[in-house]
């Protein structure tokens, strides 16, 4: 889990990067929750997602958004953080120019930034969004959502209202050429405090299934749409 410093739009960004043992690896970038709520790259759910990708041989990066820990700059209400995520993905891709695909994962605020990032980056093959704050931010930018992915939400979340996430999922499921999987974890609060094992099982099962699917073109499934 080597420590890395790489250039961001407002100064240096601090992260942890695990190289892949494969010559043409899949890439994964993992994004942490809200900086003003204490979110960092060491958040337990962020770390769990990171380890899931590392275990499957991805070249995996998690990092602190601007103004968090040793990352330079100041919080920028999501606008600058999206630029940070784009810079992090650029850095990851430069290290792995022969990569075979990219995934984006995030928790809460990190899920919002991740889903914004995939709208900008056509190479993103899939996403994992844990508790996307659909009641706090407008997700109308997913028009259309370009990639298939997994959304996981706790039914007892005190920060993100589950009905708002269900509404977002229902809207995304009407779009063609993508598949949105939705997992509701009964009784889980925003941080899945007592359901981390179940959360891990849901994410791992989904990712393993997706990785077994054939890909006919980079970032595209057999039906011609993103899978």
- What is the annotated CATH architecture? 3-Layer(aba) Sandwich
Estimated structural class? alpha/beta
Mean pLDDT score, rounded?
Answer: 94
Q: What is the count of DSSP helices, taking H or I runs of 4+ residues?
A: 5
Strand order of the largest sheet: 1-2-4-3-5-6-7-8
Q: How many individual domains? A: 1
Which CATH first-tier class would you pick? Answer: Alpha Beta
What is the distance, rounded to the nearest whole angstrom, between the alpha carbons of the first and last residues?
Answer: 29 Å
Uncertain runs with pLDDT below 50, 5 residues or more?
Answer: 216-227
Strand content: 15-25%
What sequence of helices (H) and strands (E) makes up the elements?
EEEHEHEHEEHEH
Output the CATH homologous superfamily: Alpha/Beta hydrolase fold, catalytic domain
Q: What is the tally of beta strands?
A: 8
| Shape call | globular
Measured as a percent range, the helix fraction is 25-40%
Can you put this structure into words, describing what you see?
With 227 residues, the chain is of the alpha/beta class. The chain has one domain: Rossmann fold, CATH 3.40.50. Helices cover 31% and strands 23% of the residues. The protein has five helices and eight strands; from the N terminus they run E-E-E-H-E-H-E-H-E-E-H-E-H. It has helices at residues 44-55, 79-95, 109-120, 162-173, 196-212; strands at residues 3-8, 11-18, 26-31, 59-63, 101-107, 124-130, 148-154, 180-185. Strands 1-2-4-3-5-6-7-8 form an eight-stranded mixed beta sheet, sandwiched between helices. Helix 1 (44-55) runs parallel beside helix 5 and helix 2 (79-95) crosses helix 3 (109-120). The chain starts with a strand and ends in a 15-residue tail after the last helix. Mean pLDDT is 94; it is low at 216-227.
């Amino acid at each position: 889990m080597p420590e890395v410093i790489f250039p961001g739009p407002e100064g240096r960004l601090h992260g942890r990067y695990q190289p892949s043992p494969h010559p043409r690896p899949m890439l994964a970038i993992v994004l942490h929750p809200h900086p003003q709520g204490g979110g960092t790259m060491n958040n337990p759910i962020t770390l769990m997602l990171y380890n899931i990708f590392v275990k499957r041989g991805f070249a995996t990066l998690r990092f602190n958004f601007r103004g968090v820990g040793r990352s330079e700059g100041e919080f920028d209400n999501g606008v600058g953080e999206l630029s940070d995520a784009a810079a992090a993905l650029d850095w990851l891709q430069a290290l792995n120019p022969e990569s075979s695909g990219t995934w984006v994962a995030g928790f809460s605020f990190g899920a919002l930034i991740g889903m914004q990032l995939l709208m900008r980056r056509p190479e993103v093959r899939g996403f994992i969004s844990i508790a996307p704050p659909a009641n706090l931010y407008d997700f109308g930018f997913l028009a259309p959502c370009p990639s298939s992915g997994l959304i996981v939400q706790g039914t007892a979340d005190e920060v993100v209202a589950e009905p708002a996430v269900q509404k977002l999922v229902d809207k995304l499921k009407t779009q063609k050429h993508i598949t949105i999987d939705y997992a509701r974890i009964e009784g889980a609060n925003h941080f899945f405090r007592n359901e981390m094992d179940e959360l891990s099982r849901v994410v791992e099962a989904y990712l393993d299934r997706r990785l077994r699917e054939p890909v006919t073109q980079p970032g595209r499934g057999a039906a011609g749409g993103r899978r």
